[in-house]
# Entry
Amino acid sequence: LIMGTLPAGKKEEAKTDLWQMLNFYLSVFRQLHAGGINQKIGAAFGKDFCDLLDKAPVATAWDELLKEKRITDDYEEMRRTWCGKK
# Structure
């Protein structure tokens, strides 16, 4: 998915894998705002998250997950906060 060379028939599986990755980022985001991790670690994860979303196939999958309601407002808040995007 990330490389844009996903074999036919693997899209849904790859989107589920991406969704699981996004859940991990969301848990880090929440820990950062709860004071459980420091700003330096949070910034590193934020950069990694934004770099991931800058890849066109991932951005497309994000939009699909959003339409499927697998991405909620919490994910969008994370994206706005870390990446400055709507």
Observations:
- The longest helix spans residues 11-34.
